[in-house]
Amino acid sequence: SDAYVANSTVIGVLDIYGFEIFGKNSFEQFCINYCNEKLQQLFIELVLQQEQEEYQREGIQWEHIDYFNNFIICQLVDQSHKGVIAIMDEACLNVGKITDIMLLEEMDRKLKGHKHYSSRRTDPMNKMLSHSEDFQIKHYAGDVVYTITGFIEKNRDTLFQDFKRLLFNSKNSTMKLMWPEGAEHISKTTKRPLTAGTLFKNSMLALMKT
What we know:
By secondary structure, this protein is mostly helical. Helices cover about 45% and strands about 5% of the residues. It contains 8 helices and 3 strands. It has helices spanning about 25-60, 70-80, 85-95, 100-110, 150-155, 160-170, 175-180, 195-210, and strands spanning about 115-120, 135-140, 140-145. The chain has a 3-stranded antiparallel sheet with strand order 1-2-3, with helices on one face. Strand 2 (about 135-140) and strand 3 form a beta hairpin. The longest helix has about 30 residues, at about 25-60. It is globular and about 65 Å long.
């Protein structure tokens, strides 16, 4: 096009998730808002915490900036064995009929007392929360009420390995490229696949290391 100039200066823009608070918030908003928490944590560590520590080491005079460290909220979501994602994964691994209500009850039991988590069971005076349906997380950007309905199904996000193998063996080259895990031998694919929540958490942790 006429607007294109070879070897011209290019500015790259990274488009990231925006914090989401809707009338009804589900698993998707939970993941998106967790992403924003991790990005905020990275900003705190790189811009505020490390910079002030460097000023202190070098003896530079500056006015100390007080800030809220949202590490506690990130831990609420992604802490091993204790966070919301770990509790969801445990529910998804259980044999038998596990419902979203049972998941919420387990979250209430394990997270009761956490100052950034609440439900109608843990905070009976909060009339904004529906019994056996809602839980609330106090994010750095604001309080968000999540509806538990659909969390287990969306977290499982099961696509069976034999179906992946079928797609990998498609005659369509694009389809084949989309499912490289279908190339694995059946003897190597007996492990239960990672949940959507854990995959998302792992991708965020990998991003933080880059």
